[in-house]
Specification:
- The protein is mainly α.
- It is built from 13 helices and 6 strands.
- The N and C termini lie far apart (about 65 Å).
């Protein structure tokens, strides 16, 4: 019986193998050799395919944020991530079961960390339960995505509403269902609490009139955003000052997000040569993942093609809105935003990211391919938490997705029944569980706010 040493496996697989199986997925001890007769072996072609899925590469640069990799900006961003003081009034009270953050009308109860919980492997919403979207000041429309490794994404959030990571927190801060604050309120908070850090990071200092004791403080009302009378009464120049502060707030948060990268996962260690890193079931799951075409959308080391697909996930659940058209409803707001990558607050408006982008009926029901990394503890799954477990997710795909009916949503043609056995489903779940990496350093998820 032919035996292949692990130490020469990759070379054998890529240079001169005849396609026969060369590596076992068996766990634990044993000699440093593989038995090609094992049913869980991988072929040379499969091994080559795994090389495209690991390890995570270096973060791509973001030229639209010149502070994206500035340590001072990241330190300020960490403080802002945990700060609750700039959130507005709660519309939903804590009833002892819903994960609410206080009583109706209370302010200063919500931070970014409220829906991206430290202690969770991906910094996702640990309070979410199946069929209930994330709860900030009110119930939202989708489940908050995890932040760990999120800086690898080209498009931010489920429907592509944001084309940069720094622009998302701006909408979150003012969204009445999430933080319910305003950009004026936020600018005053930065002046009062983080003036020194802000001024040391950004080239234009905070305007002294943001101090409520300043002689001309009336130029900047205590609260307001576009559409409010207080905001509309300001001069265009002062609105520009606040908008710049607002954009810099998002850029500091992005700098912090870019530090939140998970360490190697068991899968990464397996690909790197540690044959005991994952179980035989997980190796069988790898074969299914490749043979069933899953890697077509869950591609590359991030396990995401960063594109949008309609799967027919039903809009079901106690708090799930009856309709969510995904990318179709997100594109107009992106194109209209003064904070998109082609706007004046972008540090490089020439990336061409939005070139040719327009709302199109074909976008209905499409959501961005979520990374498969760090799924452990990240339930519920899908854009509104419709599926409770990874087993339910696998069953959904096995059925070929959901029924789009007369909604006008055209399901991705790749969503076809997979005809998986019960063992196949267990093996796929075992594989998905190997994609959760080592957690980010503990000091990065400590509350440093004032």
């Amino acid at each position: 019986m032919q035996r292949v040493l692990w130490g020469v496996l990759c070379a054998a697989a890529l240079f001169g193998c005849d396609g026969s199986t060369v590596v076992s997925g068996a766990q634990g001890g044993g000699p440093d050799v593989m038995d090609p007769g094992d049913a869980s072996l991988l072929t040379a072609a499969e091994l080559a395919a795994l090389g495209a899925l690991s390890p995570l590469p270096a973060l791509p640069p973001d030229p639209t944020n010149r502070y994206a990799d500035v340590p001072q900006a990241a330190q300020l961003g960490q403080k802002l991530f945990f700060d609750k003081s700039y959130s507005g009034a709660l519309a939903v009270a804590d009833d002892g079961t819903n994960g609410g953050l206080g009583s109706v009308g209370e302010t200063g109860k919500v931070s970014c960390a409220s829906c991206h919980a430290p202690g969770s492997q991906a910094l996702n919403d640990r309070r979410s339960v199946p069929g209930n979207v994330s709860l900030g000041t009110d119930y939202g429309t989708r489940v908050a995505l995890g932040i760990v490794n999120s800086s690898f994404y080209k498009w931010t959030n489920w429907g592509g509403r944001f084309d940069s990571q720094w622009s998302l927190p701006l909408a979150v801060a003012e969204n009445p269902k999430i933080m319910n604050g305003t950009r004026l309120q936020l600018a005053h908070m930065l002046y009062a609490k983080y003036r020194a850090e802000y001024n040391a990071t950004f080239p234009v200092a905070l305007d002294p009139a943001l101090d409520p004791k300043a002689t001309d403080a009336a130029r900047f009302p205590a609260s307001g955003k576009p559409g409010d009378a207080t905001w509309n009464g300001m001069t265009a120049a002062d609105q520009g000052i606040v908008n710049t502060v607002f954009a810099n707030y998002g850029k500091a948060l992005q700098a912090y997000f870019r530090t939140l990268i998970s360490g190697p996962s068991p899968f990464d260690r397996f690909v790197a040569g540690d044959r005991a890193a994952i179980s035989a079931s997980a190796v069988r799951g790898i074969r299914l993942f490749l043979s069933k075409g899953c890697a077509g959308c869950h591609a590359g080391p991030t396990f995401s093609d960063d594109s949008f697909h309609a799967l027919g996930v039903p809009q079901t659940g106690p708090r799930v809105p009856a309709t969510d058209l995904g990318q179709y409803q997100d594109v107009p707001a992106l194109l209209a935003s003064p904070f998109n990558t082609q706007g004046s607050y972008s540090d490089d408006a020439r990336t061409g990211k939005l070139n040719g982008l327009a709302q199109d009926p074909g976008q209905k029901g499409r959501f961005r391919t979520k990374s498969l990394r760090n799924l452990v503890g990240a339930a519920p799954y899908m854009h509104a938490g419709q599926l409770a477990t990874l087993a339910e997710v696998i069953t959904f795909y096995d059925q070929g997705g959901g029924d789009t009916g007369s909604s006008g949503i055209v399901k991705d043609p790749r969503m076809v029944p997979l005809r998986l056995s019960a063992q196949d489903k267990q093996d796929l779940v075992a594989f998905l569980n190997t994609l959760t990496g080592d957690p980010v350093p503990a000091y990065l998820v400590v509350d440093t706010s004032k």
